[in-house]
């Protein structure tokens, strides 16, 4: 399955919430997966294999480290990268410059990590300002904001989702997958979806290793999944 450049797949989130017993087909799940390789030791050959797998599996996107850009992909396959990754403890200027360079080097989408110190200090004006600066840097390219939901209280999750929306983000995303607090949870996904409604996408990422994990996240309200174990996840679903 392929998608036209610049288009979004039909979000699955509404379908699964409306019909909680429904299960996506293998192709439907693949169509909302960012097939991900963000290990710092990943080589160019491994990225090429990631792209080949993504094309075979019909995933929506590949997500790679910014140092791997540009990445040659077949028509219809999008390229995502990360910004301020994985700690988020970078200055706004550095994040904005990194994001701008990534877009210039062929990234269609950028997943930025929030400054968690700002969140824990409840300085949501600073959070909003930083997200806005990165969104301005990427222009029409899609921006996902990684909030590290496992490290936050419910009140903080709601507040950073609202700040991200005010700043013009396109998606909020649960996790980097590198934080010791953990990755995605269905509770966090449902809370994020309830906060942003259908106005923003919700990406679940971190610890999604089985078909059951993926289905649970979609039913909770995710419209995109960040997955490195894509082959095993899709093997657990039917055509």
From TrEMBL:
Positions of transmembrane segments: none
InterPro entries in UniProt: Aldolase_TIM, DeoC, DeoC/FbaB/LacD_aldolase, DeoC_typeI
Active site: 111 (proton donor/acceptor), 173 (schiff-base intermediate with acetaldehyde), 203 (proton donor/acceptor)
Family in the record: Belongs to the DeoC/FbaB aldolase family. DeoC type 1 subfamily.
Keyword Transferase: no
Protein's job: Catalyzes a reversible aldol reaction between acetaldehyde and D-glyceraldehyde 3-phosphate to generate 2-deoxy-D-ribose 5-phosphate.
Localization terms from the record: Cytoplasm
Primary location: cytoplasm
UniProtKB keywords: Cytoplasm, Lyase, Schiff base
Protein name: Deoxyribose-phosphate aldolase
Enzyme Commission (EC) number: 4.1.2.4
Superkingdom assignment: Bacteria
Region (Disordered): 1-25
Reactions listed under catalytic activity: 2-deoxy-D-ribose 5-phosphate = D-glyceraldehyde 3-phosphate + acetaldehyde
Pathway: Carbohydrate degradation; 2-deoxy-D-ribose 1-phosphate degradation; D-glyceraldehyde 3-phosphate and acetaldehyde from 2-deoxy-alpha-D-ribose 1-phosphate: step 2/2
